[in-house]
Structures
1.
Amino acid sequence: MSRLLKADLYRVLKSRLTLIALILALAFPVLTVLLYAGIRAIGGLGQNDAAGALLGANSIIGSVYSLSNNVGLVIPVFAGILVCLDHSNGTLRNKVIAGNRRTEIYFSHLIVSILFSVALITIYAAVSAGLSLLFFPFSWDSSLDLCPEILYFVLNGTMAFVFIATVSTMFAMSLRSAAPAIIFTIITSFFLVAVNSVVMMIDYEEFKYAVYFIPTFAGNIFTLNDFSILGLLNQSADASRSLIFAEAMLSYLFFGVVNTLIGLTVFKNRDIK
Amino acid sequence: MNVLTTYGLSKVYKGHYALKNVSMHIEEGDIYGFVGENGAGKTTLIRLVTGLAAPTSGSYTLYGVPNSSGEICTVRRRTAAIVETATMSRTMTALENLKVQCSITGVDRSDEELTALIERVGLDSKEIRSKNAGKFSLGMRQRLGIAMVMVSEPDFIIMDEPMNGLDPQGFVEVRETILSLNRQGVTFLISSHILSELEKICTKVGIISHGELLEEISMDDLHQNVRRRIVIEAEDDVAAEAALKADGTFTEIGREEGKLAIYGDADLNRVLKLFVDNGLRIRSVNTLEETIEDHYIRLIGRGYRA
């Protein structure tokens, strides 16, 4: 499979789409941080007003890993197009004709999608973190011990995008067309975010087992507790971070495997255009 | 050694047979021409044997390995194919596409080797080298497709309409490339509707119509059993036709481009004597052999060309 992976990576690196996605991943945090810094400079978000008090580098970084933010949308769009280009160019045919197994072809695409998603979100997060620390203190609340939280948060957020890459690949490889694959992936992202929000609004203690069924739920628990604007308002959660983290990882793994099996089964049994 | 053998291969799309019970075989060293009208099932068969689609029923073996075997992917590495059109990444240059093809097929080639291959298929100008394949003409893409097929040095090459988009010079180059590779032992399956081109290179042809293989015949057999016809341009063709019919010997008389055509291996001397005896004047006379195109058209039931 390594030769297929090499071919797919080469194709993605050579694609103009990758460059555009990279520019967007760099431009979005620059614009976001400069916007917040500008508003604060003109006195719109001071430490003494409610919203301003919550605005620290931590809250900006905290928003990075949301599936419904700007890069959260860019990733499924570009990952979907890059996978589907193999179908629309017909280059997928060359792989099958050359005797590559469909399972290998699928996994090569999946790995490239994951690498693409993780690279993009990491660049976005790193630029967001670096720039926001230039303009804001890490947090106005000095009592927070944020190091473990950051680790959990980054790992959980990255896993959310790995999970979305499995969704994106599943739709791209089974629908074979970029537009529907992108639409269905974004619908899935938004559905998960919306369900999370509804569950959290009702009473997340009642729905704590949702972590097993909604892969991105654990991310919201972290976000909504002590790592974001809302989190600073809600520091009551004292659930074991490592337990929730482990459960979240299992949930991502389980649903990621399910997506992959569905996508692979459809792809293996379909004629190639 | 049998390279490809199909056993009652069928493919149904939406209740319609695109391919029906096709059994054919290609032996090592063959250049097998696959002939049929548009939609006859040529591409469907190629898609089945290249693994792009699964047969509805029937099976095939590639180098003796059945399609149901897990080993079929391994043996596919000995084959290469262009199906419908040459497929490549349109945002890459010819060289970059060849590099990807090397990775896909698991071969190592230096840039110099790949550049030599690009030159061999006639894509050697500096301008072409820096252009993305998306800006190539159909003929240039077809040439690049042929280079991509050749990159892994396969034993069996399948080409679906390889002459599409090529200019006459391209026809000659592709034909010479095919013959040259065949001399080196490469087996070919070529589908084309340009029958005159196939006739120049094929060792065997399969004629397919409406999804069914009507005939599989070697070119040697075709030439040995060829039907000849006499085409006569007479001054008074009505009287000439009447005289021929009255003679009773010539049972198949028709018209080709306004001239009288006598089919069925008619004896030219007898025809000429008949004309002399009846005082009929002849403007021109030709004895023609049936071409693969004539054979094909006769076989699918449309008679000779008008």
2.
Amino acid sequence: MRRRADSARRSDAFFLFCVYAAAAFFVVIVAALFVMLTKGSWLSLQTFGLKFLWTSEWNPVNNTFGALPLIFGTVVSSLIAIVLAGLVGILAATFLADFAPRWMARPLSFTIELLAAVPSVVYGLWGLFVLAPLIRSYIGPALQKTLGFLPLFQGPIYGVGLLTAGIILAIMILPTVTAISRDVIAAIPEDQREAGMSLGATKWETIRSVVLPAARTGIFGALILALGRAVGETIAVTMVIGNRPVISASLFAPSYTLASVIANEFTEATSDLYLSALIELGLLLFVVSFLINAMARLMMWTVFRDK
Amino acid sequence: MDFAPHAVTALMGPSGCGKTTLLRCLNRIHEILPKARVEGKVSLDGEDVYDSGISAIELRRRVGMVFQRANPFPTMSIAGNVTAGLLSDVPNSARAQIVEKALRGAALWDEVKDKLNQPGTSLSGGQQQRLCIARALAVEPEVLLMDEPTSSLDPISTASVEDLMESLAKEYTIVVVTHNMQQAARVSNYSAFMLSGEDGIGHLIEMSETRQMFTKPTDPRTEDYITGRFG
């Protein structure tokens, strides 16, 4: 009996050690990543200081590195994506949670989640060979004709550029927005809907004034989480954004993002400072993504904590 | 069954006998559930409410409802909750008056008049339930359906809601579902006793004036129930 108890205790302790170690692994990875990025970008941090964030010359030839155009490209392409994906995603989520009959909701949800499983390079290919030509020959000219008075839609249309990247990103983050918003909307108690309907509200009025307001924090959380993905997305954006570190008012103009610069240029980073500047871009992305994700989790937590 | 105007009718019976379902058919809120199906006829002022010419939306403005659990809208203020059911063409100038009238009607005005802009969910459970009553009253219905309105309230809040039901009966026709017999005896003028039969379907066993039902019920099953022999 005694021996059995001893060996049981030992295997229990070993198992305990394994689960703790596996969990600790993640913390170690995150910390190691942060330390590595900070160390690697030290030279650049020292050379440029905060100026790195708001100077706009990215010129490897004379070793001047300012990340502003890349920050601009990242922010604008992500914003386009979040606006487009937000509109479509919230409507689709409303449909799935409140309108779709079950036989339709399941396959539709499955299809939407399938969209998330497509490798991003495939989106990049589609964007480059289908979407970019469409924008160059049809969508761009149409926008210019109707909304051309806005600086956003002026200038030459290359096909590749901010708008194309934003649309590709929107499609890529749509599953995140839709799936989470659907869960949030479905989590609003049925008695809220009944309360609305019992006052003589139509279904649309109930959704607009009762359900969506009650779900707004969670939906906002979904948007923020999707934003985190958009900010960090690399390969598809690199393929369609045009890769030029310039700031332009036009959405048709080519641009560049933090992630694309790293992907494109690390092989040719010949000087130490160049490499260090690229790693600092990585650090920037890391910190921003971390903050965005933390914010999203916090918001989602406020919705689901009562459940 | 007939629901007498300006009186409280209690629907009672053990769990699962179909009281709530019956109540939910009266304002057609039952319809919003998938696979719900209705047979028979419900008339309001002589009109069949399931007639294709009657819209459920309009009907529900005439037949208000209060639910088992207080369900104020969490994103709206106290005043906002009360006006939630008003049509958008009600001018803002009229709204303050409607809020006061409805909250007075629900015996809540004195407790909340200084904090109308605070969230409805900041109130206590009993106050929230009265807020929901005020919300239903603001639409000026003819009939008020109450689905076990006090089952999640403490005794003091229960008493205040019961008092409220009595005073509301002067202006409204009230149908209240309860499985609390004492409550039915206290607040209602008429009572209906329901029981689910062998077939799993709820049946109306007896309906009469409350006093009569509690003193000399005609059906032995009613007697068994109110004397506590089952249920």
